[in-house]
Structures are given as structure tokens and as C-alpha cells.
Write a structure and sequence with these properties.
Layout: H1 3-27, E1 37-46, E2 55-65, E3 72-74, E4 81-83, E5 88-93, E6 96-100, E7 106-107, E8 113-114, E9 138-140, E10 145-148, E11 151-155, E12 158-161, E13 167-171, E14 174-177, E15 181-183, E16 189-191, E17 193-195, H2 201-236
Antiparallel strand pairs: 1-2, 3-17, 4-16, 5-6, 5-12, 6-14, 7-8, 9-10, 10-11, 12-15, 13-14
Length: 238
């Protein structure tokens, strides 16, 4: 197969993957704490045996997570928390501890604060946070100190990944920090607020149009190459 066809096919595959990523971003415009993702393209050139020309192939398996802060909305919810600035909440999942910016929690059957998936929120020591069922007032200070009827009961942990580029999307709004994470000093957490998705719908739709046009150009090239090869085979077979 011609080198140009190889390069175009791998490029088409990458463009399809990017289209899927853009579609996922658009689908999560209203998902609190969602982080926009992008696809990273790279090109590989491999030497072939003999006098054959080198083989060029594109790859789009890399992903880039946009960590820019999204808009913060006032909900008035007692257990709605939003981080202002850098950092992530840490939650305990069956796959291990994971990071998230989605700050909507609720007391579980045992009093533990859990997220929408039922996973416990962890404090700055890595333990699950529980609130007494008899508490009349739950207050959260901006430094993360959680109090019940004026008595401190825990400090919500805010963590930063050791390698921001090593964040792996684990599903929904959750990420795994492959290089680990550490407690962030002087965090700012707001009670009664949630952080919205940081996806910009206008830029995503614009990108979707660009990817679609690039894919159509690649398909046109493949169609013309197919016609050219058929014509050559037809001529040689006469």
C-alpha cells in the first residue's frame, strides 16, 4: 500500500478519535466539575528494508486535560463545595483513590459524605468524612474545616497531582493521578457552590466543524487514490 494512503488512513483514525472527544465534551457541558479533553497528534516515521521509502504514520492516542477553572454557581446546598483555584477533591473508589472537581456531596446511610456515585469524600489525612446525623448546622470554612454545630469534625482534603500531565480520565469527572497527589496548602473551598464544566460550547462546535472538514478532505483523497489505482490496474490488465 502507498505510503500516502497509510498516512491518510492513520490520520483519519485520529480525526475520528478527536471527533468522539469533542462530542463527549459537548455532551458534558452541564456536568458539574467536568474537565475538557483534547487529543494530541504525533507523527512517526519508520525506516523500511532495502531501498524502500520510509513509512510515515500519525498517532492520536494521547489526551490532554484542560485544568482551567470552570464557572462557579451558587446552589445554597449545605454539602455543595467548590474549590476556588487549583486542586481536587479526593474520593475513595473500588479502583483506588481518585481526584475530582465535582463537589456535590450528600450524607450516606452511615453519615459519610459521598458523591453522586456513592464514593466517600476524603479528608486531608485520607480518611472518609462523616457528619453526625444529629447536627443541626453544618458549616465549611474556606480552609476546608468542616464543623457541626460549631464543633470542628474534619478538614476536607484538597489535593494536587504531582504530575498534572499524568492525569488519566477514569470516567465521568474522576481522574487517576499516576504519579500520586499531595495535600495542597492554603486551599480555598466555598460552601453552597459548585463548579460547572469548563467546556466552551462555541469553541467546541468550531473545532467539530474543523475536524469534520479535515476528515472529508482525507476521505476525498482516499477516494481519488482508489480510483487512480483501479485505473492503473485496468490499464495493465488489458
Amino acid at each position: 500500500m502507498d505510503n500516502a494512503i497509510y498516512a491518510t488512513l492513520t490520520r483519519q483514525s485520529g480525526l475520528m478519535r478527536e471527533m468522539q472527544t469533542v462530542a463527549n465534551n459537548l455532551a458534558n457541558i452541564s456536568t458539574a466539575g467536568f474537565r475538557r479533553e483534547g487529543v494530541i497528534f504525533s507523527e512517526h516515521v519508520a525506516a523500511l528494508d532495502g531501498n524502500e521509502p520510509s513509512l510515515s504514520m500519525a498517532d492520536a492516542n494521547g489526551r490532554n486535560v484542560n485544568l482551567a477553572q470552570g464557572p462557579i454557581s451558587n446552589t445554597g446546598g449545605t454539602f455543595d463545595f467548590a474549590i476556588e483555584g487549583d486542586g481536587f477533591f479526593m474520593i475513595q473508589t473500588p479502583q483506588g483513590n481518585q481526584l475530582t472537581r465535582a463537589g456535590s456531596f450528600t450524607p450516606g446511610p452511615e453519615g459519610e459524605l459521598v458523591n453522586m456515585d456513592g464514593y466517600p469524600l476524603l479528608d486531608n489525612g485520607g480518611a472518609a468524612i462523616s457528619v453526625p446525623s444529629t447536627a443541626r448546622t453544618i458549616a465549611l470554612a474556606t480552609d476546608g474545616t468542616l464543623s457541626a454545630d460549631g464543633t470542628p469534625i474534619a478538614q476536607v482534603g484538597v489535593y494536587t497531582p504531582n504530575d498534572p500531565n499524568g492525569l488519566v480520565h477514569s470516567g465521568g469527572t474522576r481522574f487517576t493521578a499516576e504519579a500520586g497527589a499531595e495535600i495542597m496548602e492554603n486551599p480555598v473551598i466555598l460552601q453552597g457552590y459548585v463548579e460547572e464544566s469548563n467546556v466552551d460550547p462555541v469553541s467546541e462546535i468550531t473545532r467539530m466543524i474543523e475536524v469534520q472538514r479535515a476528515y472529508e478532505l482525507g476521505q476525498t483523497f482516499l477516494d481519488r487514490e482508489d480510483e487512480r489505482i483501479r485505473a492503473v490496474i485496468s490499464t495493465l490488465s488489458r
